[in-house]
Model the fold of this input.
Amino acid sequence: MPVILLCIGILIGISGAIPPEFLQGTDQLIKALVILLCFVIGMDMGKDQKLWDNIRTMGKRAFIIPVISLVGSILGGITVGLIADIPLAISTAASVGSGYYSLTTVLLKQLAGPEAATIGFISNLVRELLVMMAMPFFVRYFGRNGAVSIAGATAMDTSLPFIVRSAGKQMAIAAFVSGVLITVAMPALIPLCYRLF
Amino acid sequence: MDILIFMAFLALGVTLGKSGKLPPVITESLDRTLMFVIYGILLFVGIEVGTYREVLSDLGSIGLKALLLTFGTISGSGLLCLLILRKE
Done:
């Protein structure tokens, strides 16, 4: 069902059947849905007393996971850059984007031109889509913390509900905080990686 | 700015949920509501992705490199976490 809906959406977008005035609103609409999502997840968490006993132990994790996530992504970017012959400046900058494809695309276009921007766009978009669709798989093989780490920046909004469903409510705070920290660091990290490597 | 709004609504939801004053009609339908919201997000993320038409139509070797990067970042962030925090 999730995959089908996503594909229908992509086809609608490509077909151009939707008037441009409405398309400018999709961003706002997604934002509104995410707000509703936070509200619903909040109520769900609030009524669960057992959850709050676990949250204190989760707190520390929320700050370790984003660091692991970013370092792991950069290491993956270096490895693939060397294998697939992509300049490390571009492969690491695109990798550290952590699924935040809009910002990564814009920054890479300014820093390195359209080809690098395309690499940044596709690699991060696919990461976001995979995180939404294959979350049960990631939880099973990388554990709950690993799944949040893989979700990167998307853990605070688009993939948050999928993490909650597959990894449990007790991961919601850690996922949200991890996603926020990665997102906030992003405008600095992408140019930093580009210049460093 | 968006993050602050998200956090505010999360906190509002938690407060309401904790207060125990929510009517059963709401607390019992939270799971289903969550599903609908998820489906809505998927549909609209799809529509937004579809509008990047030029990028989607011109892929080729760049696309392959990008997919390899996705594989690399997912494996890297997942495995490093597994290594440091163990599986939980």
